[in-house]
Specification:
The protein is α/β, with parallel strands linked by helices. It has helices spanning 10-22, 38-50, 78-87, 98-101, 121-124, 128-143, 155-167, 197-202, 205-218, 223-236, and strands at residues 5-7, 27-32, 53-58, 92-94, 147-151, 173-177, 240-248, 263-271, 274-281. The chain has two domains: 5-177, Rossmann fold (3-Layer(aba) Sandwich), CATH 3.40.50; 190-276, Pantoate--beta-alanine Ligase, Chain: A,domain 2 (2-Layer Sandwich), CATH 3.30.1300.10. It contains ten helices and nine strands. The longest helix has 16 residues, at 128-143. It is an enzyme of class 6 (ligase).
Length: 283
Amino acid sequence: MADIIITRTVSDLRHAVRKFRDEGDRIGLVPTMGALHDGHIALVREARKRAARVIATIFVNPAQFSPAEDLAKYPRTEEADLARLSAARADILFAPTVGEMYPQGFATTISVGGPAAAGLEDRFRPTHFAGVATVVAKLFMQSGADVAMFGEKDYQQLMVVAQMARDLDLPVEIAAVATQREEDGLAMSSRNRFLSPEHRALAPLLHRTLRKAADDIAGGAGIEAALAEGRAAIEQAGFALDYLEARHAASLAPIADPAAGPVRLLVAAKIGQTRLIDNIAAT
Protein backbone atom coordinates (compact mmCIF):
# COMPACT_ATOMS: atom_id res chain seq x y z
CA MET A 1 0.00 0.00 0.00
CA ALA A 2 1.38 3.39 -0.98
CA ASP A 3 1.86 6.13 1.58
CA ILE A 4 -0.87 8.75 1.61
CA ILE A 5 -0.90 12.05 3.48
CA ILE A 6 -4.05 12.48 5.59
CA THR A 7 -5.14 16.07 6.19
CA ARG A 8 -8.19 17.30 8.07
CA THR A 9 -7.67 21.05 8.14
CA VAL A 10 -7.33 23.58 5.34
CA SER A 11 -3.98 24.76 6.70
CA ASP A 12 -2.56 21.22 6.71
CA LEU A 13 -3.85 20.62 3.18
CA ARG A 14 -2.27 23.81 1.89
CA HIS A 15 1.00 22.98 3.63
CA ALA A 16 1.12 19.58 1.92
CA VAL A 17 0.20 21.04 -1.47
CA ARG A 18 2.85 23.75 -1.12
CA LYS A 19 5.55 21.07 -1.04
CA PHE A 20 4.25 19.62 -4.29
CA ARG A 21 4.12 23.07 -5.87
CA ASP A 22 7.73 23.70 -4.84
CA GLU A 23 8.59 20.63 -6.92
CA GLY A 24 6.66 22.03 -9.91
CA ASP A 25 3.95 19.37 -9.76
CA ARG A 26 0.55 19.66 -11.42
CA ILE A 27 -2.29 18.93 -8.97
CA GLY A 28 -5.40 16.85 -9.66
CA LEU A 29 -8.48 16.85 -7.43
CA VAL A 30 -11.09 14.12 -6.91
CA PRO A 31 -13.96 15.41 -4.72
CA THR A 32 -16.08 12.65 -3.13
CA MET A 33 -18.44 12.03 -0.24
CA GLY A 34 -16.75 8.72 0.54
CA ALA A 35 -18.23 5.20 0.49
CA LEU A 36 -15.90 4.70 -2.45
CA HIS A 37 -16.52 2.24 -5.28
CA ASP A 38 -14.81 1.50 -8.59
CA GLY A 39 -16.38 4.57 -10.15
CA HIS A 40 -14.54 6.82 -7.69
CA ILE A 41 -11.31 4.93 -8.25
CA ALA A 42 -11.68 5.52 -12.00
CA LEU A 43 -11.65 9.24 -11.19
CA VAL A 44 -8.42 8.83 -9.23
CA ARG A 45 -6.82 6.88 -12.08
CA GLU A 46 -7.85 9.54 -14.58
CA ALA A 47 -6.42 12.22 -12.30
CA ARG A 48 -3.10 10.35 -12.23
CA LYS A 49 -3.00 10.57 -16.03
CA ARG A 50 -3.55 14.33 -15.94
CA ALA A 51 -1.49 15.39 -12.93
CA ALA A 52 1.67 14.44 -11.05
CA ARG A 53 -0.12 14.61 -7.68
CA VAL A 54 -3.67 13.63 -6.74
CA ILE A 55 -5.78 14.94 -3.88
CA ALA A 56 -8.92 12.99 -3.00
CA THR A 57 -11.45 14.54 -0.67
CA ILE A 58 -14.05 12.87 1.52
CA PHE A 59 -16.70 15.18 2.92
CA VAL A 60 -20.37 14.38 3.40
CA ASN A 61 -21.64 17.85 2.68
CA PRO A 62 -24.72 18.73 4.75
CA ALA A 63 -25.42 21.77 2.57
CA GLN A 64 -26.47 19.58 -0.36
CA PHE A 65 -28.98 17.49 1.61
CA SER A 66 -32.59 18.63 1.89
CA PRO A 67 -34.56 18.29 5.13
CA ALA A 68 -36.38 15.31 3.56
CA GLU A 69 -33.10 13.43 2.99
CA ASP A 70 -31.46 11.51 5.81
CA LEU A 71 -27.92 12.86 6.09
CA ALA A 72 -27.18 10.48 8.97
CA LYS A 73 -27.84 7.42 6.79
CA TYR A 74 -25.30 8.35 4.14
CA PRO A 75 -22.64 5.58 4.29
CA ARG A 76 -19.37 6.49 5.97
CA THR A 77 -16.53 4.02 5.39
CA GLU A 78 -13.34 6.04 5.81
CA GLU A 79 -11.01 3.17 6.75
CA ALA A 80 -11.96 1.15 3.67
CA ASP A 81 -11.91 4.31 1.54
CA LEU A 82 -8.39 5.12 2.71
CA ALA A 83 -7.18 1.65 1.71
CA ARG A 84 -8.69 2.04 -1.76
CA LEU A 85 -7.20 5.49 -2.25
CA SER A 86 -3.78 4.28 -1.16
CA ALA A 87 -3.95 1.36 -3.58
CA ALA A 88 -4.90 3.78 -6.37
CA ARG A 89 -1.87 5.96 -5.49
CA ALA A 90 -3.64 9.09 -4.35
CA ASP A 91 -1.14 11.40 -2.66
CA ILE A 92 -3.38 13.27 -0.21
CA LEU A 93 -6.69 12.56 1.48
CA PHE A 94 -8.47 15.69 2.67
CA ALA A 95 -11.21 14.66 5.09
CA PRO A 96 -12.36 17.76 6.97
CA THR A 97 -15.04 18.02 9.63
CA VAL A 98 -18.23 19.98 9.10
CA GLY A 99 -16.86 22.60 11.49
CA GLU A 100 -13.72 22.98 9.39
CA MET A 101 -15.70 23.53 6.19
CA TYR A 102 -18.50 25.61 7.73
CA PRO A 103 -17.08 27.28 10.83
CA GLN A 104 -19.22 29.26 13.22
CA GLY A 105 -20.47 32.40 11.50
CA PHE A 106 -20.22 30.95 7.97
CA ALA A 107 -22.67 33.00 5.89
CA THR A 108 -21.70 32.85 2.21
CA THR A 109 -23.13 30.55 -0.43
CA ILE A 110 -23.08 30.45 -4.22
CA SER A 111 -26.31 31.18 -6.09
CA VAL A 112 -26.69 28.94 -9.14
CA GLY A 113 -28.84 29.09 -12.27
CA GLY A 114 -28.46 27.83 -15.82
CA PRO A 115 -28.03 24.04 -15.73
CA ALA A 116 -28.77 24.09 -11.98
CA ALA A 117 -32.31 25.26 -12.77
CA ALA A 118 -33.08 22.84 -15.60
CA GLY A 119 -36.05 21.14 -13.97
CA LEU A 120 -34.27 17.83 -13.41
CA GLU A 121 -32.66 17.09 -10.03
CA ASP A 122 -33.37 20.65 -8.92
CA ARG A 123 -37.11 19.99 -9.23
CA PHE A 124 -36.86 17.39 -6.47
CA ARG A 125 -33.89 18.77 -4.53
CA PRO A 126 -34.22 22.56 -4.86
CA THR A 127 -31.30 23.52 -2.57
CA HIS A 128 -28.98 20.74 -3.69
CA PHE A 129 -26.88 22.49 -6.32
CA ALA A 130 -26.27 25.62 -4.28
CA GLY A 131 -24.78 23.33 -1.65
CA VAL A 132 -22.74 21.46 -4.25
CA ALA A 133 -21.43 24.64 -5.87
CA THR A 134 -20.47 26.19 -2.55
CA VAL A 135 -18.51 23.20 -1.27
CA VAL A 136 -16.86 22.50 -4.63
CA ALA A 137 -15.74 26.13 -4.96
CA LYS A 138 -14.25 25.89 -1.47
CA LEU A 139 -12.42 22.67 -2.37
CA PHE A 140 -11.03 24.27 -5.53
CA MET A 141 -9.65 27.21 -3.56
CA GLN A 142 -8.45 25.13 -0.61
CA SER A 143 -6.52 22.70 -2.83
CA GLY A 144 -5.39 25.04 -5.59
CA ALA A 145 -5.93 22.16 -8.01
CA ASP A 146 -5.14 22.51 -11.69
CA VAL A 147 -7.69 19.90 -12.80
CA ALA A 148 -10.70 18.32 -11.07
CA MET A 149 -12.43 15.05 -11.98
CA PHE A 150 -16.21 14.66 -12.07
CA GLY A 151 -18.11 11.58 -13.21
CA GLU A 152 -20.73 11.77 -15.95
CA LYS A 153 -23.09 9.67 -13.81
CA ASP A 154 -24.07 12.89 -12.00
CA TYR A 155 -24.43 14.70 -15.31
CA GLN A 156 -26.37 17.73 -14.14
CA GLN A 157 -23.87 18.23 -11.34
CA LEU A 158 -21.04 18.06 -13.87
CA MET A 159 -22.70 20.79 -15.94
CA VAL A 160 -23.32 22.95 -12.86
CA VAL A 161 -19.71 22.72 -11.73
CA ALA A 162 -18.39 23.45 -15.22
CA GLN A 163 -20.66 26.51 -15.51
CA MET A 164 -19.57 27.76 -12.09
CA ALA A 165 -15.88 27.42 -12.93
CA ARG A 166 -16.40 29.35 -16.17
CA ASP A 167 -18.58 32.05 -14.67
CA LEU A 168 -16.30 32.71 -11.70
CA ASP A 169 -13.07 32.45 -13.73
CA LEU A 170 -11.78 29.73 -11.43
CA PRO A 171 -8.36 28.54 -12.65
CA VAL A 172 -9.23 24.85 -12.69
CA GLU A 173 -9.93 22.52 -15.59
CA ILE A 174 -13.07 20.40 -15.20
CA ALA A 175 -12.50 16.88 -16.55
CA ALA A 176 -15.49 14.64 -17.25
CA VAL A 177 -15.02 10.90 -16.67
CA ALA A 178 -17.35 8.33 -18.21
CA THR A 179 -19.88 6.57 -15.99
CA GLN A 180 -18.52 3.31 -14.58
CA ARG A 181 -21.00 0.43 -14.74
CA GLU A 182 -21.54 -3.01 -13.31
CA GLU A 183 -21.53 -5.89 -15.81
CA ASP A 184 -25.32 -5.68 -16.16
CA GLY A 185 -25.20 -1.95 -16.94
CA LEU A 186 -26.18 -0.50 -13.55
CA ALA A 187 -24.34 2.76 -12.95
CA MET A 188 -22.00 2.44 -9.97
CA SER A 189 -23.22 4.44 -6.99
CA SER A 190 -22.67 4.50 -3.24
CA ARG A 191 -26.43 4.14 -2.88
CA ASN A 192 -26.51 0.77 -4.66
CA ARG A 193 -25.59 -0.93 -1.38
CA PHE A 194 -29.07 -0.08 -0.10
CA LEU A 195 -30.81 -2.12 -2.83
CA SER A 196 -32.44 -5.36 -1.74
CA PRO A 197 -31.56 -8.42 -3.89
CA GLU A 198 -34.93 -8.11 -5.65
CA HIS A 199 -34.47 -4.41 -6.37
CA ARG A 200 -30.84 -4.92 -7.38
CA ALA A 201 -32.05 -7.34 -10.05
CA LEU A 202 -34.52 -4.74 -11.35
CA ALA A 203 -32.17 -1.73 -11.20
CA PRO A 204 -30.39 -2.28 -14.57
CA LEU A 205 -33.73 -1.68 -16.31
CA LEU A 206 -33.02 2.05 -16.13
CA HIS A 207 -29.91 1.73 -18.27
CA ARG A 208 -31.59 -0.68 -20.69
CA THR A 209 -34.47 1.78 -21.08
CA LEU A 210 -32.08 4.64 -21.80
CA ARG A 211 -30.28 2.52 -24.39
CA LYS A 212 -33.51 1.53 -26.12
CA ALA A 213 -34.74 5.13 -26.20
CA ALA A 214 -31.41 6.26 -27.67
CA ASP A 215 -31.53 3.50 -30.29
CA ASP A 216 -35.12 4.40 -31.17
CA ILE A 217 -34.23 8.06 -31.58
CA ALA A 218 -31.21 7.17 -33.73
CA GLY A 219 -33.53 5.00 -35.82
CA GLY A 220 -35.83 7.91 -36.57
CA ALA A 221 -38.42 7.67 -33.80
CA GLY A 222 -39.58 10.98 -32.37
CA ILE A 223 -38.02 11.96 -29.07
CA GLU A 224 -41.35 12.24 -27.27
CA ALA A 225 -42.53 8.87 -28.55
CA ALA A 226 -39.32 7.20 -27.39
CA LEU A 227 -39.56 8.86 -23.99
CA ALA A 228 -43.22 7.92 -23.54
CA GLU A 229 -42.42 4.27 -24.20
CA GLY A 230 -39.49 4.42 -21.78
CA ARG A 231 -41.52 6.04 -19.01
CA ALA A 232 -44.19 3.37 -19.32
CA ALA A 233 -41.60 0.57 -19.13
CA ILE A 234 -39.99 2.04 -16.00
CA GLU A 235 -43.28 2.50 -14.19
CA GLN A 236 -44.58 -0.94 -15.20
CA ALA A 237 -41.44 -2.49 -13.67
CA GLY A 238 -42.37 -1.02 -10.29
CA PHE A 239 -40.22 2.10 -10.15
CA ALA A 240 -41.53 5.44 -8.92
CA LEU A 241 -40.38 7.63 -11.80
CA ASP A 242 -39.22 11.17 -11.14
CA TYR A 243 -38.23 11.94 -14.70
CA LEU A 244 -37.05 10.55 -18.01
CA GLU A 245 -36.03 13.50 -20.15
CA ALA A 246 -34.16 14.40 -23.32
CA ARG A 247 -32.04 17.52 -22.95
CA HIS A 248 -29.41 19.42 -24.91
CA ALA A 249 -26.14 17.93 -23.68
CA ALA A 250 -24.48 21.32 -23.11
CA SER A 251 -27.27 23.56 -21.79
CA LEU A 252 -29.69 20.94 -20.40
CA ALA A 253 -32.50 22.82 -22.14
CA PRO A 254 -35.43 20.66 -23.34
CA ILE A 255 -34.93 19.37 -26.85
CA ALA A 256 -37.50 17.94 -29.25
CA ASP A 257 -35.43 17.50 -32.44
CA PRO A 258 -32.28 15.33 -32.50
CA ALA A 259 -30.87 17.62 -35.20
CA ALA A 260 -30.73 20.41 -32.59
CA GLY A 261 -28.51 18.24 -30.36
CA PRO A 262 -26.28 16.75 -29.06
CA VAL A 263 -28.93 15.02 -26.96
CA ARG A 264 -28.52 13.63 -23.45
CA LEU A 265 -31.11 11.28 -21.96
CA LEU A 266 -31.44 11.52 -18.17
CA VAL A 267 -33.50 9.44 -15.73
CA ALA A 268 -34.23 9.40 -12.01
CA ALA A 269 -36.44 6.83 -10.33
CA LYS A 270 -36.94 5.19 -6.97
CA ILE A 271 -37.12 1.45 -6.39
CA GLY A 272 -38.04 0.55 -2.82
CA GLN A 273 -36.33 3.18 -0.67
CA THR A 274 -33.39 3.77 -3.04
CA ARG A 275 -33.33 6.58 -5.57
CA LEU A 276 -31.22 5.93 -8.68
CA ILE A 277 -30.10 8.27 -11.43
CA ASP A 278 -28.48 7.57 -14.80
CA ASN A 279 -27.90 9.19 -18.19
CA ILE A 280 -26.40 8.48 -21.60
CA ALA A 281 -25.60 10.38 -24.78
CA ALA A 282 -28.29 9.84 -27.40
CA THR A 283 -26.74 11.67 -30.37
